[in-house]
Design a protein that fits this description.
Elements: E1 5-12, H1 16-25, E2 33-36, H2 45-48, E3 65-70, E4 76-80, H3 102-112, H4 118-128, E5 129-131, E6 150-152, H5 160-171, E7 187-190, E8 195-196, E9 199-200, H6 203-208, E10 217-220, E11 224-231, E12 234-241, E13 247-256, H7 259-269, E14 272-273, H8 275-280, E15 287-288, E16 300-308, H9 320-329, E17 341-345, E18 356-361, E19 377-384, E20 392-394, E21 403-405, H10 412-430, H11 432-435, E22 438-441, H12 451-461, E23 463-464, E24 494-496, H13 511-529
Helix pairs in contact: 1-13, 4-13
This protein binds flavin-adenine dinucleotide.
Length: about 525
C-alpha cells in the first residue's frame, strides 16, 4: 500500500515566505496544505532574545554556508548564515523591518508588470504589518498597517550612543524621518523591528503559530526535501528525508520557499537550469532555463569599528541582571537587535534614491559576533545598496552544498561607491555629538586614510549583510525563471515564492519585501485555483 500523502499545496521551506503562504492558504478549511521544513522546531531560547542572534550562527539552526573565494575580497571565503528552523532566516536575523525605496518596486514593475510596482504593491506590506509604535508627531496617518500578523515595534531600549548617532545625522543635515518606511526613505531613523514586547517576532510567530492547530495544515520539521516529483512537466509532489511517508503529493501546486540559495538548488537538482552548468554537474537537462541561479545579488557591508569612550555599549550586556530584566519584562539591552539606527543617503547629487545605507550598532562588529566581543566599541556599517556586480549559485559545491559565488565588487564602480559611503560615515563619526563617544579605530578599520589604503581595507574586511536575492528572478521576459505570477517557466504546478524571485535587490533589507511578495503570491495562488 502506498504511504503517500496527498495535499492541495506542498510548500517547501518554512522561512519568511513559507510561513506566510502556509498561514494564508490554510485559512480556507477546504484546502489541505503541507509545510516541509528541513530544520528543527524553533524552540531555542536564543531565538527569542534579540541581542542573542549571533549565538545561533553555526548551530543546527543555521545552514552555515560559505561563498567561493572572492577574487575582489583578497580571495576570502565569506561565511553566509541562513536560518534552518521554523521562521527560516527570520528566526535568526537582526529583525530590521526596512521596506526599501519606491524606486525598488517600480523597477520590479518594469521587470514583471505594474502589480509589482510601488503604488500597487505597497498594500501587501501593510497587510503584513501591525505597528506597535506611537502615532506620528505630525498628525499624519501611519505608513504602516495596524492589523496584520507581524508586530513592528520601535526599539525598546536603545543604547545611549544610538541617540548620539542620530544627533550626528541631524548635525550632518540628513533628513529626520518620523517613520522610516516611507516611499522615499532618504534620511535617518531608529530601526523599526520585528519584535513584540521586546522579543523577536518571526514569520513563524506571526503566520504559523496561529495556524498550527488547523486540521488542514500539516507541518513537517527535520524534513529536508531532496527531490521534486514530476508527472510529465507537472510538479506532482516532493520527497523529503526524515518523512516516513513516501511522496508528499500536491494535487494543485508545489511551492518552493527554500530561499535564494536552496530554491535554485532544488530546481537545478530537478534538471531545470542552464544546460551547460547542469551538464558540468552531471545533471540531465529537463527544462532549459539559463537564469536559474544567476543574477545573485547581495548587500556587502564594510564595518567602521571604533573604540568606545565609555563602557556603555552592548559588550558584556548578557549579565545576570540584564538576563533577569529581559526574562521578567522583556526589557533592557538584551532587547537590542544590534543595528539600532539607520541612515540612507546618496553619494552623488544626480541620484534620485539612496545608494548607501549606514547601520549604527553600539558594539564592535568582529567576525559576525561569533565570539562575544571583549572590548567596548561602536560600529557604523556601510552598505552598498545597489551593487552592479552579480554572481551565481551552481550545483557541485562541497558536501552536496551549492556553490555560492556572489562575485562581490567585480564591478569597479561598486568599489568607488562603497569607498564614497565610507567617507560619509567618517564625516558622521567626526560630528561632535558622536565624536565624544569614541576614541581610536579598531578591528580592521584603519581610521581616515587615503583611498588606496581604504580600498585595501574594504577588500580585507567587507562582509555580507545576509541579503542574497535574484536567483529565480521573476519577469515578463521569456528568459526569466519565474513568470510575473511566480510560476516556473517550462513547468506546471510549480512556483517559487521567496527572496530568489526578486528581479533586483532592494535599497532596504530583504525580510519585509519577501513577506510582502509572499502575501501577494497567496492572492495569486488563490486566484489561479478558481480558474
Ligand atoms: C543573520 C541574518 C541577519 C539578517 N538580518 C535581516 C534584517 O535585520 N532585516 C531583514 O529584512 N532581513 C535580514 N536578513 C535577511 C532576511 O531574513 C531574508 O532575506 C529572508 O528571511 C529570506 O526569506 P526566504 O523566505 O527567502 O528564505 P528563508 O527565510 O531563509 O527560508 C528558507 C527556508 O527553507 C528551508 N529549506 C531550505 N531548503 C530546504 C529543503 N530542501 N527542504 C526543506 N526546507 C528547506 C530553510 O531551512 C528555511 O527555513 C538577515 C538574514 C540573516 C541570515
Amino acid at each position: 500500500m502506498s504511504k503517500d500523502r496527498t495535499y492541495d499545496y506542498v510548500i517547501v521551506g518554512a522561512g519568511s515566505a513559507g510561513c506566510v503562504l502556509a498561514g494564508r492558504l490554510s485559512e480556507d478549511p477546504s484546502v489541505k496544505v503541507a509545510l516541509v521544513e528541513s530544520g528543527p522546531r524553533d524552540r531555542k531560547t536564543e531565538i527569542r532574545i534579540p541581542a542573542a542572534f549571533p549565538k545561533l550562527f553555526k548551530t543546527p539552526y543555521d545552514w552555515n554556508y560559505a561563498t567561493t573565494k572572492q577574487t575582489a575580497l583578497d580571495d576570502r571565503e565569506l561565511y553566509w548564515p541562513r536560518g534552518h528552523t521554523l521562521g527560516g532566516s527570520s528566526a535568526i536575523n537582526a529583525m530590521m523591518w526596512v521596506r526599501g525605496h519606491r524606486a525598488d518596486y517600480d523597477a520590479w514593475g518594469e521587470a514583471a508588470g505594474s502589480p509589482w510596482s510601488y503604488d500597487e504593491f505597497v498594500r501587501y506590506f501593510q497587510r503584513a504589518e501591525r505597528w506597535q509604535g506611537a502615532a506620528r508627531a505630525d498628525g499624519e496617518d501611519t505608513v504602516y498597517g495596524t492589523a496584520g500578523p507581524l508586530h513592528i515595534s520601535p526599539p525598546r531600549h536603545p543604547n545611549p550612543t544610538t541617540a548620539a548617532f542620530l544627533d550626528a545625522c541631524r548635525a550632518q543635515g540628513l533628513c529626520e524621518l518620523d517613520e522610516l518606511n516611507q516611499d522615499d526613505h532618504s534620511g535617518f531613523a531608529l530601526t523599526p523591528l520585528n519584535q513584540y514586547k521586546g522579543r523577536r517576532w518571526s514569520a513563524a510567530d506571526g503566520y504559523l503559530k496561529p495556524a498550527a492547530r488547523r486540521p488542514n495544515l500539516d507541518v513537517y520539521t527535520d524534513a529536508r526535501v531532496t527531490r521534486i516529483d514530476f508527472d510529465g512537466t507537472r510538479a506532482a509532489g516532493v520527497v523529503a528525508s526524515g518523512v516516513s511517508a513516501g511522496v508528499l503529493r500536491a494535487t494543485r501546486e508545489v511551492i518552493l520557499c527554500a530561499g535564494a540559495i536552496n530554491s535554485p538548488q532544488l530546481l537545478q537538482q530537478a534538471g531545470i537550469g542552464d544546460p551547460e552548468t547542469l551538464a558540468e554537474a552531471g545533471i540531465d537537462t529537463f527544462v532549459a532555463s539559463p537564469d536559474v541561479g544567476r543574477h545573485l545579488q547581495d548587500h556587502l557591508m564594510y564595518p567602521l569599528n571604533v573604540r568606545a569612550a565609555k563602557p556603555v555599549t552592548l559588550t558584556g550586556a548578557d549579565s545576570p541582571a540584564n538576563i533577569a530584566r529581559f526574562l521578567l519584562g522583556g526589557r533592557g539591552p538584551l532587547t537590542s537587535n544590534v543595528g539600532e539606527a539607520v541612515a540612507f543617503l546618496a553619494t552623488s547629487p544626480e541620484l534620485t534614491a539612496p545608494d548607501i545605507e549606514l547601520v549604527y550598532a553600539p558594539v564592535p562588529f568582529v567576525n559576525h559576533g561569533l565570539e562575544a566581543p571583549t572590548e567596548h566599541g561602536l560600529t557604523v556599517g556601510v552598505i552598498l545598496l545597489q551593487p552592479k556586480s552579480e554572481g551565481r549559485i551552481t550545483p557541485g559545491g562541497p558536501d552536496g552544498k551549492p556553490r555560492i559565488d556572489p562575485d562581490y565588487l567585480a564591478h569597479e564602480e561598486d568599489v568607488r561607491t562603497l569607498v564614497a559611503g565610507v567617507r560619509r560615515a567618517e564625516e558622521l563619526l567626526a560630528q561632535s555629538a558622536l565624536a565624544a563617544h569614541h576614541t581610536e579605530p579598531m578591528g580592521g578599520y584603519p581610521g581616515v586614510v587615503d583611498d588606496e589604503a581604504l580600498t585595501r581595507s574594504v577588500r580585507a574586511n567587507a562582509e555580507t549583510l545576509y541579503h542574497p536575492v535574484g536567483t529565480c528572478r521573476m519577469g515578463s521576459d521569456e528568459g526569466s525563471v519565474t513568470d510575473p505570477r511566480l510560476r516556473v517557466r517550462g513547468t506546471e504546478g510549480l512556483r517559487v515564492v521567496d527572496a530568489s524571485v526578486m528581479p533586483r535587490i532592494t535599497r532596504g533589507h530583504t525580510h519585509a519585501p519577501t513577506v510582502a511578495l509572499a502575501e501577494r503570491a497567496a492572492d495569486l495562488i488563490r486566484e489561479d485555483a478558481t480558474k
